[in-house]
Amino acid sequence: MSYVSLLRSPHAARLLLGTLVGRLPSAMAAVAIPLALRDAGAPYGFIGLAVGAFAIAAAVAGPLLGRLVDHIGQPLVLLGTAVLAGCGFVVIAAAVDQQAGVLVGAAIAGAATPPLEPCLRALWPEIVDAEELESAYALDSASQQLIFVGGPLIVAGCVSVASPVGALWAAALLGLTGVLVVATAAPARAWRAPARQADWLGPMRSRSLVVLLISLTGVGVAIGTLNVVVVAYAEEHRLPGGAPTLLTLNAFGALIGGLVYGAVHRWPVPPARRTLLLAVGLAVSYALLCLLPAPPLMACLMLLTGLFLAPTLTVSFVLVGELAPTGTVTEAFAWLVTLMTSGSALGSAAVGLVLEHRGPTWAAACGVLGLTMSVLILLAGQSRLDSDQRTETKASAVPAA
């Protein structure tokens, strides 16, 4: 089945498009909040605090919202969070010159970020055939790069037409629109998580899943490192468009890598081993970035890192879906988002300090360090991941009595 055929599957295109639109506010917030606050005369220290409040609130609340979805279904949680997040953006827009109001609005908007990403990944097994599931995850992983390109572009358009505050209103509207598209679709309304054991650990009672999720934190560190390193690189080298051009190339590489990976329906290597091999490839590509070559070669390296990123995430999605204990799949995917986001924040913070004291080469090495940690964790847990993945796959293949 081609990607065109996959998108022709009932509800597939609608759910994917709605999810992409509904997730745009998260990408917009990282640009719109600083611009709106700076336009109101806020100091950079407070701007960093406000953006941090949004990110931390989203990271903390994500798994809790995922668990709520597993308990009561998708529509109520998605619609409720969309309204609350929209109110958070409106509060920031209305109180842009009042620090307390901005912090409250940022915390609400972040904490109420609709869990569209984990919800979609929980729905894929319901709307595509089992043999096409990995292709669906690949399309999902590749297409999310459009969010990180489209979000800032929408903010730029709002600023040129209206003002930075207008971008906050647009974020609220887009979030609600995307959620309405997803939450009113038949698969989202019908989806229910299987009955689960009552314990507070949820998906974290699967040791194999914990190993996988912790390893992906290192991938987040690398992503956060890259976001800062390219800014420093663009200051030292003349290239059209500066740092955004390099990040766009990285996103384009991820888009291509994900689509190419998903076009292969049968891989001779099991998912656990595939994750390890792709993580090694990603680590090697990031190691090459430490050379900080001339812009033409740097552009090629940005494409290369993207080519490995999306397939790594895709096969990780497969494993998360298979390793998550019964009734916890949405929360498991939410933990993946939270840990990668936390890793990205950690990478960005660490690389800033390294840039100040050691220079860009050592800063780029922070990404390699994060990915080396990922590879070592995957290597140490390889036998457990492989055996547990085979066990879960066989169990899911047994018809219910």
From TrEMBL:
This is Major facilitator superfamily protein. It is found in: Cell membrane. InterPro entries: MFS, MFS_dom, MFS_trans_sf. Residues 208-401 form the Major facilitator superfamily (MFS) profile domain. GO terms for cellular component: plasma membrane. Keywords: Membrane, Transmembrane, Transmembrane helix. The chain crosses the membrane at residues 12-37, 43-64, 76-96, 145-162, 168-188, 209-234, 246-264, 276-295, 301-320, 332-355, 361-380. One of its GO terms (molecular function) is transmembrane transporter activity. PROSITE patterns: MFS. It is a multi-pass membrane protein. It comes from Streptomyces antibioticus. It comes from the Bacteria.
